[in-house]
Amino acid sequence: MIRLTDLEHAVLGVVWRDGPCTPYAVRKEFLDSPTPSWSGSAGTIYPLVRRLERAGLLASEEAGRDRRPSRLYRVTASGRRVLRDWLRPPLPVTEIAPGADPIRTRLFFLDALPPDEREAFLDMVVRQLEEHVADLRGDEQGEGRLDPIDRLARRGVRHVAEARLRWLREVRATLGRRSP
Amino acid sequence: MIRLTDLEHAVLGVVWRDGPCTPYAVRKEFLDSPTPSWSGSAGTIYPLVRRLERAGLLASEEAGRDRRPSRLYRVTASGRRVLRDWLRPPLPVTEIAPGADPIRTRLFFLDALPPDEREAFLDMVVRQLEEHVADLRGDEQGEGRLDPIDRLARRGVRHVAEARLRWLREVRATLGRRSP
DNA sequence: TCCATCATGTAAACAGTTACATGATTGC
DNA sequence: GCAATCATGTAACTGTTTACATGATGGA
After folding, report:
1. Are B149 and B124 contacting, i.e. CB atoms less than 8 angstroms apart?
2. Which of B104, B166, B172, B174 is most worth mutating to test chain A (most A CB atoms within 10 A of its CB)?
3. Contact status, residue A139 vs residue A154, Cβ threshold 8 Å
4. Residue A55 and which of A93, B21, B58, B63 are 20 to 30 A apart at CA?
């Protein structure tokens, strides 16, 4: 049994969902994603699909036909099994509680700035986060013809962004009041 | 000008905040963090501080004195400057909108499971997330003697976890109603 | 015809983790 | 004296990104 990353599982999922397809089609899925978790760069995807094929989770056939050589990949029975197992609960804790927040990280060292710059930092970040949330809301308004999963995913991103914003306003209120 | 990662900046911040200290003291800071973003493993920290020293952002002196050789690191003037620049707004977009959510990723491929297992997945993940939030609340109750920044950081983690939970309940409600 | 973009790939770097090795110190 | 754990470090590996190279296709 090999251990796959979330990206490898996701590639497996894309190939399963979008039928026999080329590595480039998989790439585009990540490149065009409105909720990007990975870059979908060539250097990631091409070696990755070959790895999955060697592991027996994908199979491929020649697709070139007098064109530049290319391959169509599909998920094998064993690949489908791996995909289902990935989706079967319970999830590992690391997937339930994912970690880093760059703003939170910076917060710990805010005292390295003089007081007025501390406030400027918090003001600016609140403003940036407000803009980001506004963008997300705009996106949701704009593209009405999205499939339900995409719509839910975007809502998730927005919900989390809004929560961070609320928290950061709280932070500003708390730290702003502090006596220097 | 060298480009540092968030972890490198954070190490710089820890050494600045905790005064001249050993690499191990820095490690512990990450190992014991209630809001962990990095493992603080030896293989990360020891090479990292040497790197920062070679870049002129840290300086060190022998601390051993008939003990096993050890070094006390402190932040140089140049290091303090880098630390402040890191904290100065505006932040890069990637820091405002950090990305991956393993649950969201899985959502896209939920149809690979039969309908009853789809529901089981959503139920289970909601339950796991509820437990996680409950843990976070418990932690906040328990440790009253935390410094303000730590307390704020924990609140941030909880806020985001709660937002994800609310979102996931919404997802369950939406997808549960779907006709198979 | 030429330029943009589609498409396939490789090489090198990078950041971070795991696992290991080993010396020193403390508490039983 | 012996075990646990404190402390310092190295080596190998892993997953991902960046940058590059290059061929094919379609539209101006």
Report:
1. no
2. B104
3. yes
4. A93
Q: How far is A15 from A22, CA to CA, in rounded Å?
A: 9
Question: Between helices A42-54 and A23-31, what is the axis angle to 10°?
Answer: 130
Cβ atoms B15, B74 nearer than 8 A: yes
Contact between A103 and B113 using a beta-carbon 8 Å cutoff: no
Whether the upstream peptide bond of residue A90 has omega within 30° of 0, thus cis, is yes
Q: Are B37 and B107 in contact (CB under 8 A)?
A: no
The pair of three-digit structure tokens given for residue A137, joined into one six-digit string: 């809301």
Lowest mean pLDDT among B7-16, B72-81, B96-105: B96-105
pLDDT digits (tens, 9 = 90+) for B78-101: 999 999 999 997 999 889 988 789
Examine residue B20 and say whether the peptide bond preceding it is cis (omega within 30 degrees of 0).
Answer: no
**Chain A span 37-96 residues with beta carbon within 7 Å of strand C:** 41-43, 46-47, 68-71
pLDDT of A179 above 70: no
Q: Which of A136, A104, A163, A38 is nearest to B91 (CA)?
A: A104
Q: How many CB contacts within 8 angstroms connect chain A with chain B?
A: 206
List of residues 6+ apart from B18 with CB closer than 8 A: B25, B26, B29
CA A109 to CA A96: how far, in whole Å? 27
CB-based contact, B148 to chain A, within 8 Å: yes
Q: Which two tokens stand for residue B86?
A: 């890191």
Strand partners, B59: B74
Helices (H), chain B: 6-17, 23-31, 42-54, 77-87, 93-96, 102-107, 115-142, 148-176
Instruction: Output the pTM of the full model.
Output: 0.91
**A101 interface with B at CB cutoff 8 Å:** yes
3-state secondary structure of A13: helix
